[in-house]
Amino acid sequence: LQCQCAYDAGPGEDLVSMYHLVKVSDDVDQPEEVRVKVFIPRDDPRVPSVYWIWKSADFQERESYDMYGIVYEGHPNLKRILMPEDWVGWPLRKDYISPEFYELQDAY
Fold this sequence. Notes:
Number of helices: 1
Oligomer: single chain
Shape: elongated
Distance between the termini: 40 Å
CATH superfamily: NADH:ubiquinone oxidoreductase Nqo5 subunit
Largest sheet: 3 strands, antiparallel
Radius of gyration: 16 Å
Low-confidence stretches: none
């Protein structure tokens, strides 16, 4: 697994979880590559985690969860990684309405 990421296809459209896989063989100049896209309904965005196959998906799936709200079922530690734990909503969804302000609590 070279990369796992997600994107929003548009307001009212599906969310997409994308996996870029690379097979490196003796011929390093021409690695075999494939990109797999999983289209997920935005009203219940759930997809099985690939963490148990590729451990490198750990933080990448957590980021996709944090920004888009895609739940990776079976992930051992699926929690926010970039936004505060109490943040409401999924900031990179195209239908996200950003709050006017965010108050830091327990900052001192």
